[in-house]
Amino acid sequence: MFGEKDRELFERNYRTWIESVASSVAESMKHLERSEIEAILGRYERYQNDPPSMYTAITGDRRTQVDEMVGRDRLQNILLLSMDAVSFTPSIFAQHPGVLDYAFAMNRRFFFKIYWFPIIAINRTYIERASEHELHFALEHELTQNKMYTEHMDLHGHKYLRVDEKRTISEQAIPPAIERSGITDEERVKEHGLMNEIVTSSPLVPKTFAETSLFEYLEVNWDSIKDLGVKGETESEKEFEEMLSQEHGWIDFSHEIYGLYLSKLKQELDLTYREYGYV
Fold first, then answer.
1. How far apart are CA 215 and CA 224, in angstroms?
2. Taking the C-alpha atoms of 79, 80, 82 and 88 in order, what is their torsion angle to the nearest 10 degrees?
3. DSSP assignment of 124-191
4. pLDDT in tens, 13-59
5. How far is C-alpha 203 from the geometric centre of its chain's CA atoms?
6. Rounded to whole angstroms, how far apart are CA atoms 262 and 19?
7. DSSP conformational letter for 247
8. Cβ partners under 8 Å of residue 206, min gap 6
9. Distance between CA 146 and CA 152 in Å, rounded?
């Protein structure tokens, strides 16, 4: 994936960036009550001790509701999960490194053991509080992006997408998602308000850790999810399988980064809330 020097540079820069983000996140939490901060930090610590606990399978009536929204056939063989946290990345819409994009939904196609697994994960609080049109829009946006990513991979193989390519896919997926879900402009404004509320009351985790936690979820729940896996369908996927089978350091690095992030977050909070004993 990276040459040794490139990897070292990337990891060094990423550590610096994640500490900066932790400082910003801590600042945004300082208006919360002590009990709220304690509860959020408790969830952060749970993820550190048990990364897969960030995810729960969507089953029963909620799964039926989602299937009926978008069509059961479109979600067939997709692992549908709720996610307890909100993940963040450097923004693909702004140039400043301090600006973040928050993900309330993720769609991934992971290779694990011998199969590929299509996965959609949606923030748990969003699922509980969003209107039917808002939830439908979120699902349609992820499914449409998934289709676009698949088409891109078919044409170009499993190479990393540039920031501008990711931005284009995200933006182009919005109109069909609006049309299929029937969401109104007013509802989209309300949705943005809901997302802002969720950001202020949820653990915010690096996307790298959210993804490796998802990978670990597959391992812990292998017996119940293995039937959803499919064999690689293209030469590009088979080449990618071989590369991934030799690349395990990303999980260790993700855990290290999360530990650094959480330590810095606690340290920054302690500057104001020293009596809390969060270090």
1. 14
2. 80
3. HHHHHHS-HHHHHHHHHHHHHHHHHHHHHHHHH-SPPPPHHHHHHHHHHTHHHHHHHHT--HHHHHHH
4. 999 999 999 999 999 998 899 899 999 999 999 999 999 999 999 99
5. 12
6. 9
7. -
8. 18, 21, 87, 88, 89, 254, 257, 258, 261
9. 10
H or E segment to which residue 266 belongs: helix 249-272
Burial class, 3, CB count within 10 angstroms (exposed 0-12 / middle 13-18 / buried 19+): exposed
Q: Which residues contact 72 (CB under 8 A, 6 or more apart)?
A: none
Answer whether 207's CB lies under 8 Å from 88's CB: yes
Query: Could you tell me the strand order of the sheet in which 105-112 lies?
Result: 55-57, 79-83, 115-123, 105-112
Residue with tokens 């408790």: 42
Q: What is the pLDDT of residues 159-203, one digit of tens each?
A: 667 888 888 999 999 999 999 999 999 999 999 999 999 999 999
Return the structure tokens found at 163.
């920031």
- Which position has the token pair 């017996």? 223
Tell me 34's DSSP state: H
Axis crossing angle, helix 132-156 with helix 185-201, rounded to the nearest 10: 90
d(CA 252, CA 255): 5
Residue-wise pLDDT tens digits, 64-110: 999 999 998 899 889 999 999 999 998 888 777 678 999 999 988 88
Phi, psi (5° rounding) for residue 33?
-70, 155
Pairwise CA distance, residues 261 & 45, whole Å? 11
pLDDT of residue 150: 79
Rounded to whole angstroms, the maximal C-alpha distance in the chain is: 58
Place of tokens 């509802």: 187
Q: Does this model's pTM top 0.90? A: no
